[in-house]
Write a structure and sequence with these properties.
CATH superfamily of the largest domain: Glycogen Phosphorylase B
Number of helices: 12
Largest sheet: 7 strands, parallel
CATH class of the largest domain: Alpha Beta
Strand content: 15-25%
Oligomer: single chain
Strand order of the largest sheet: 3-2-1-4-5-6-7
Structural class: alpha/beta
Radius of gyration: 21 Å
C-alpha cells in the first residue's frame, strides 16, 4: 500500500529514514513531501531521501503561522490527488493532517510531546506515542486509536549510528578541548517560554569565559543565527563558538561532544539515547518523556540561572565506541503499528475522484 510521509521539521529526517526502509522492505510504497524549513530539505538530500518540496516556514507571528498552515495544506493538495495514498504518516505535520482530515484520508501521527496545541481539525485519526505517555492527555479523541511503543523516538535511529571523526576536522575542533554542543531555544514556536532565552544566555556567557572550551552552536535558522551574532558578538571572538556551514549528522556531532545543552526536545533525547551528559534549558511545559528521562538520571533539567553554574559540568568525557543494537525495539513496534492501522483503516482512506471532482470529503475524526 502507498504511504505518504510529510517531513515537517529537521529531526523528522533521521527519524523516518529507518521507518521508510522497513516499510519498503515489507512491500509498501512510500512517497515523501518536505517543508522547505530549517535544515529539512538539505538533510533529506544528504540522507538520500527523494522528497517533493512543498511550502516553507512563516515565522513566529501567529497570524502568519495560521495563514501559512492553510496555504501549505492547499499546496499539498495536488500531490495528494496525484499520488492517492492509503495513509498519511508524520511526526506532527499539521498541514498534512488538516488536508487529510478534509479529504477523508486516515492519518497517523507519531508524537512524543503531549502539550502541543491541536485544534479539532488538526487532530490525527491515529496516534503512536512512547508508552510513558499513554496516560497523558493526547491528541487522538478515541483511546482505542492510540498505540504505544517502548523507549523513545530517538531509539528508532540511534542504534544504527556510527561515529565519524572527519566532522571534527570540518569544524576545526581539537581533541584537547571541552566541546559543548548547544541548541538555542525555539523562539518561534508557540510553546516558547522566554525563561529559556535567559538560561541560554547564562550558559553561553559562562562558556565564553571558561578557558579550554569550545561551543558548536546549532541555530534553528539563519534568522536566529543573525540575531545571536548581533546580540552577543563577544561569544564568537577567537573562534570560541563555531556554527556549522551546512547541516551535519546530529548524532555524530553529539558523540564527539563532552556536554550537550539544548532548548529543544529532540537533541536532548538524542544525547540521552547515546548515554551522554545532557542538560535541558527548555522551560515550556515539561513532557512525560523528559520527566521520565530526568527521573532515570539520563537528563538534567535546568530551571534557574543558578542551575547553569551549579548543575552543568564542563569536563572532558571518555568517548567509548557506542554499543549498537542489532535491532531497535522502538522501530519494530512503530512499523508493526503502522501496518496494523493500514489493515484496519488504510484501504478505506484512499482519496477517490469522480469526473474530476472529490467524491468523499469527511472529517477523519468522526
Amino acid at each position: 500500500m502507498k504511504i505518504w510521509i510529510d517531513l515537517d521539521n529537521t529531526p523528522h529526517v533521521p527519524f523516518f529514514k529507518p521507518i521508510i526502509r522497513e516499510l519498503e522492505n515489507r512491500g509498501h510504497q512510500v512517497v515523501l513531501t518536505a517543508r522547505d524549513a530549517f535544515q529539512v530539505c538539505e538533510l533529506a538530500d544528504r540522507m538520500g531521501l527523494a522528497c517533493t518540496r512543498v511550502g516553507r516556514h512563516y515565522g513566529k507571528n501567529r497570524l502568519m503561522k495560521l495563514s501559512g498552515l492553510g496555504l501549505r495544506s492547499l499546496q499539498l493538495l495536488p500531490f495528494l490527488l496525484r499520488e492517492k495514498p492509503a495513509l498519511g504518516l508524520s511526526h506532527g505535520s499539521r498541514a498534512q493532517i488538516l488536508l487529510s482530515n478534509m479529504m477523508g484520508l486516515p492519518t497517523v501521527m507519531i508524537m512524543d510531546y503531549e502539550h502541543a496545541q491541536t485544534p479539532l481539525m488538526l487532530r490525527p485519526r491515529w496516534e503512536i506515542v512512547p508508552e510513558v505517555m499513554f496516560n497523558e492527555s493526547l491528541h487522538c479523541r478515541k483511546r482505542e486509536r492510540i498505540r504505544t511503543y517502548r523507549g523513545i523516538k530517538e531509539d528508532v535511529y540511534a542504534p544504527e549510528f556510527k561515529p565519524d571523526r572527519m566532522l571534527l576536522e570540518e569544524l576545526g575542533l581539537k581533541g584537547d578541548e571541552i566541546i559543548a554542543t548547544v541548541r538555542p531555544p525555539a523562539n518561534e514556536a508557540h510553546y516558547h517560554n522566554p525563561e529559556s532565552d535567559i538560561l541560554f544566555k547564562e550558559f553561553m556567557n559562562r562558556l565564553s569565559q571558561t578557558p579550554g572550551t569550545r561551543a558548536v552552536l546549532l541555530p534553528r535558522n539563519k534568522n536566529q543565527e543573525a540575531q545571536i551574532r548581533t546580540a552577543a558578538p563577544q561569544w564568537f571572538e577567537n573562534g570560541k563558538v563555531v556554527v556549522p556551514k551546512r547541516a551535519v549528522d546530529g548524532l555524530n556531532l553529539l558523540w564527539h561532544s563532552d556536554v550537550v545543552v539544548s532548548g529543544g526536545g529532540t537533541m536532548n533525547r538524542e544525547a540521552a539515547a547515546l548515554g551522554l551528559p545532557v542538560y535541558s534549558i527548555f522551560r515550556g511545559k515539561s513532557g512525560a518523556v523528559d520527566r521520565q528521562l530526568a527521573k532515570e538520571g539520563r537528563l538534567v533539567l535546568i530551571e534557574t540561572p543558578a542551575d547553569v553554574h551549579a548543575k552543568i559540568k564542563l569536563a572532558r568525557r571518555a568517548k567509548e565506541p557506542p554499543r549498537n543494537s542489532a535491532r531497535s525495539t522502538a522501530l519494530e513496534e512503530i512499523v508493526q503499528h503502522v501496518q496494523e492501522i493500514l489493515k484496519l483503516d488504510g484501504r478505506n482512506g484512499a482519496v477517490s475522484l469522480t469526473n474530476g471532482r472529490i467524491r468523499d470529503v469527511v472529517l477523519a475524526n468522526k
